[in-house]
Amino acid sequence: MVKQTYLHEKHINLGAKMVDFAGWHMPVQYTSIIEEHKTVRENVGVFDVSHMGEVFISGNDATAFLNKVVPQCIDKLPYEKAVYCQLTKENGGLVDDLIIYKLGIENYLIICNASRIDEDVNWLSINQKGYDVEIDNQSHNYSLIAIQGPKAINLMNKMGYDIENQKSFTIKSATLEGIKLLVSRTGYTGEDGFEILVENELAEFIWDKILERGQEFGIKPIGLGARDTLRLEAGLHLYGNDLDETTTPIEADLGWSVPKDKMCEYNGKQVIMDQIKNGTQRKLIGLEMLDKNIPRHEYEVYFLGEKVGKVTSGGIAPTAGKNIAMAYVKNLAEICTDSTVQVMIREKLHDAKVVKRPFIQKRNRV
Amino acid sequence: MSYKEEMYCSKSHEYVVKEDNKYVIGLTDYAIEQLGDIVFLELPSVGDEFEKGETFANIESVKAASEIYMPISGKIVEVNEELPDAPEKLNEDCYEGGWLVKIESDAPESEFDDLLTYDDYKSELE
Questions:
Q1: Is the pLDDT confidence value at A75 over 90?
Q2: Quick check: A170 and A184 in contact, CB under 8 A?
Q3: Band (B126; pLDDT cuts 50, 70, 90)
Q4: CA distance to partner chain A, nearest, from residue B91 (Å)
């Protein structure tokens, strides 16, 4: 049975093209993916991301428990701060990538991928042994609405948002349209923006208010199609494409989210530390096509006539005006920034330049 | 010429319409609507010959890559040369300005057997 968010009827009434995604019937586009993409880069867009998971972690050992399941130092996470991390396995592979928010003393919120909620909760339960901790999966009780774009802050203020100078990667209990709810300054677009955690019963009210008050800022509802082009252009990974149970954070070029000095043990620490020290067999790189061809998921990558890897995410970058990809390749020193590789597209090799990610200037740090 | 009245459509959403002694081939408005924003188009060269059902062009939207098949056999005599540089024009017009190729064809009548009038094609989709 395909699930529907509490905003499903809104999407249908807005004329969205709907698709099945991770077991949910979701809007892929309302008008045009390119138009929606540009709306978020230039003005502000609203996304229904209620399919994502919300898992609350509390109890005397909550911090110690989370410290064991992710490489980040959760013990150093300040109150109301958020941190991007991964649930690692013993072999360094990833169960999921997620954001952990500190809500209070020994009280955390995890927001995770829709497709991985069951796996995550299962994995957390397996690791729970010996820890005084409660794992409370509240995904079914919350809707998540993202407001993203340079004018997101203007729209929030228009809605009576009562927090001044909320920093990126923080979560606050805020008032919006007279309702107390949790607002985090995070997103998946490379732009400034907010994610609003709202009880299901209030989702429609908040959604309507956002579209109404957003009119003057040129707001549009944004589907999963543009969500994908936005995140790819921002160089952000997608679990299932760029990350899975066989990829480690180091291979995935997520070393920045793995502290080198974390004292306590965590799942996969040995493998990950070894890879930091001795390198990996393969690495994730950014690619920019040198002709008009579009690289896509699963296309093969060649270097000097040898097959060296595969594209994991690829497509057009509407703002950068280029065709781009993220690919895993053999970890050769010669494959470095500005070197040229080839992507096999329709049985022909097409040149692509290795480039740094993100593919655009990110503007999400406030 | 009124495309929608005179053209025949394949189940894979190509249309073919006779123009003097040539045939004009393109993609139906339904196909373009389903694809969404068109961002890439690769057309064959003049002189190329294709059998009915063969891939003669490639098209990509933001979301996906697709092949375009010959609705009838023939030899390419003209291609819409400006289109690959501005494939997004297909989203506005896939007929008058958005045809893909023109062919010469001595395809037997039987190659038209599985092609539908636009009205039949549309009702088949519903």
A1: yes
A2: yes
A3: confident
A4: 10
List pLDDT tens digits, range A129-139.
999 999 999 99
Determine contact: B86 vs chain A, CB below 8 A.
no
pLDDT-based confidence at B91, cuts 50/70/90?
A: very high
CB-closest option in A293, A315, A346 to B62: A315
Cα–Cα nearest to B67, from B77, B79, B57, B81: B57
Give the DSSP H or E segment for A155: helix A152-158
d(CA A106, CA A103): 8
The nearest CA of chain B is from the CA of A258 a distance in Å of: 33
Q: Are B39 and A316 within 8 A, CB to CB?
A: yes
For CA atoms B114, B117, B119, B122, give the dihedral sign: positive
pLDDT value of position A189: 98
CATH superfamily of A281-355: Aminomethyltransferase beta-barrel domains (2.40.30.110)
Top-tier CATH class for A8-50+140-233:
alpha beta
Domain ranges of chain B: 7-107
List CB contacts of B120: < 8 A, sequence separation 6 or more. none
Contact B55, B71 (CB under 8 A): no
A196 part of contact set with chain B, CB < 8 Å: no
User: Residue A17 and residue B60: Cβ atoms within 8 Å?
Assistant: no
Which chain A residue is nearest to residue B63, measuring alpha carbons? A225
In the predicted model, what is the mean pLDDT of chain A? 97
- Would you say residue A115 has pLDDT above 90? yes
ipTM of the complex: 0.92
Q: What is the CATH number of domain B7-107?
A: 2.40.50.100
Where are the domain boundaries for CATH 3.30.1360.120 in chain A?
8-50+140-233
User: How does pLDDT run across B30-83, given as a tens digit for each residue?
Assistant: 999 999 999 999 999 999 999 999 999 999 999 999 999 999 999 999 999 999
Q: Is the peptide bond before A249 cis (omega within 30 degrees of 0)?
A: no
The predicted structure's pLDDT at residue A341:
98
Which of A17, A29, A294 lies at the smallest CB-CB distance from B39? A294
Residues of chain A with CATH 2.40.30.110: 281-355
